[in-house]
Amino acid sequence: MNKAVGHTNYWAQGGVSMSLGSKNWKDVALKEKLPNPDGKVERSAMVYNGTSVYLIVTNSDCTAETFRATIQKYFGIKDGEPKSNVNGIFLDGSGSSQMRAYDSKNKLVNITGDGRKLVQIITVN
Length: 125
What we know:
The chain is of the alpha+beta class.
């Protein structure tokens, strides 16, 4: 049996596979228990592209399929044509989809979700 050690030194961010470029992405997401895939709610994701990581949050209600399709369009991916260096995960959704960060022009991006104070930091070095 494996035992977690040093549990005060880390915290894991979980998510559900987006399977970018895969035609059977929804089967995978349902198997991994993506909450409310067909509901129109706010969504969030973490996507990697080679050495870059993108944290994506929408304050527009959408289905998982629409959210994923928009991400694929941004990265130039079509179902059935995966790119080996691009993939991602759906993160929590609905009212907990929040972001507070500064963009490349030092402008504050503040998406508040349902207004709850849900503090979480994701740092990418």
